[in-house]
Specification:
With about 110 residues, the protein is of the alpha+beta class. The chain has one domain. Helices cover about 25% and strands about 25% of the residues. The protein contains 3 helices and 5 strands, in the order ααβββββα. The longest helix is centred in the first third of the chain and has 17 residues. The termini are far apart. The model has no long low-confidence stretch (mean pLDDT about 80).
Length: about 110
């Protein structure tokens, strides 16, 4: 019992940055619900890495997501905190505010070029 140590980690800011916060996730899921009701999107998934967290959107059960809404954890520039990428990895839009990015994007006009 002499070697027991109590370690307390109160670094909540780092924990919040590892995923979407509640407001960001609510904004994304509201968009997803709207697009599912339109019949445009069918499924979603989350993926994460050291540099980014993404909400991946699928039109049908396929190997690659059609769109990815990313939260860049280590952006090079201030306006690259949130990104929208297509299935080829091309950046379609970028912004420092997720709600502005989602609201200003005309999702029905985004089409994939094969």
């Amino acid at each position: 019992m002499k070697n027991i140590k109590l370690v307390i980690s109160n670094d909540l800011k780092k924990e919040k940055e590892k995923f979407f916060v509640k407001g960001e996730l609510q904004c994304i899921l509201n968009l997803y619900a709207k697009m599912v009701s339109n019949g445009t999107w069918k499924d979603y998934s989350f993926s994460s890495s050291i540099r980014e967290i993404s909400f991946d959107v699928y039109q049908r059960t396929s190997d690659q997501p059609v769109f990815r809404i990313l939260k860049n954890l280590k952006p090079d520039y201030y306006n690259e905190k949130f990104l929208i990428k297509d299935k080829n990895g091309n950046i379609l839009k970028k912004s420092e505010n997720l709600s502005q990015l989602i609201n200003k994007t005309s999702w029905n006009n985004l089409r994939l070029v094969k």
